[in-house]
Amino acid sequence: MTKKPPPSPPLSPPPERARLAAALRELKGRTGLSLAGLAAKTAFSKSSWDRYLTGRTLPPREAVQELCRLAGEPEGRCVALWEIAESAGSGRAKEEAPDPPDGATPEAGAPDDGAVHRGTAVMAVLASVCAVAVGGVAAVALLLPHGDGEPRASLSPPPAAQGPRCQGESCEGQSAMHMKCGSAPDTLASHRTASGAWLELRYSPECGTSWARMWATRIGDRLEMSAAGGGHVRDAEVQSAVDAANYVYTPMTATRPGAVVRACFHPAAGGGEECFHSRVTE
């Protein structure tokens, strides 16, 4: 009699997703909530949270933001981890030249998770369509059961499904992630520094703001960003190993189409500053 082969062991999640799942489990521990408790306080079921927290499934961005809210944690770090995991899972990470914070950087190229010089605006359009879909169908979806038969927890869309929390001058000095301006930004320009760090200038047409971000950095590296005629210089510094392993963002500054946006990098290891700029397009 032929013996049946032993069942295959469960596949381990990709490292990017595993890192995100570990961060989410830490946040769950802070909330003191069980899986059932999370399901009761969010729009996601108990079984869904089990898959998200074990890394078997990449959670929606909204689930990450909901858990951050419940744990009283600023969402920037976990959303950055989600961006890395989502990019790797969708294959976009292979197409983008600069690798995310946890990978080795290639020799040349310009990354983007929204659009690069409008040439790859398709990704931004898709992201915008998804955002509209979430907001438009959330009220209907919340009235329906989950695919696993569990009912939704509430009849109103989660706060994360709402649009940006500011626009123009009201965004001045605010975090793009916290104010929900970073869902589908344009990448105006990219630059790789002599120390190996990657920099990007970002622009949100919906919020009318610009900011800069950096990764593959070292503790003490600093990034400044300003818009011509704006009068404000926004800066960010890599303050810890956690920062060095993730995206670090400057606060936003209000910008209009046609404005020139400039970023300058100051390496911790010394050496001259490195600056680059771009113009916000229509």
Nearest-integer average pLDDT = 76
And the CATH topology of the largest domain?
434 Repressor (Amino-terminal Domain)
End-to-end Cα distance, whole Å, is 72 Å
Shape type = globular
**How many distinct domains?**
2
Which structural category fits the helices and strands? alpha+beta
SSE run: HHHHHHHEEEEEHEEEE
Protein name: DUF2690 domain-containing protein
Pfam families: DUF2690 (PF10901), HTH_31 (PF13560)
Region (Disordered): 89-115, 150-171
Describe this structure in words.
The protein has 282 residues and is an alpha+beta fold. The chain folds into two domains: 146 residues, 434 Repressor (Amino-terminal Domain); 112 residues, Immunoglobulin-like. It is built from eight helices and nine strands. The strands form two sheets. Strands 1, 2, 3, 6 and 7 form a five-stranded antiparallel beta sheet that branches. A four-stranded antiparallel beta sheet has the order 5-4-8-9, with no helix packed on it. Strand 8 and strand 9 form a beta hairpin. Helix 1 packs parallel to helix 4. It is globular. About 24% of the residues have low confidence.
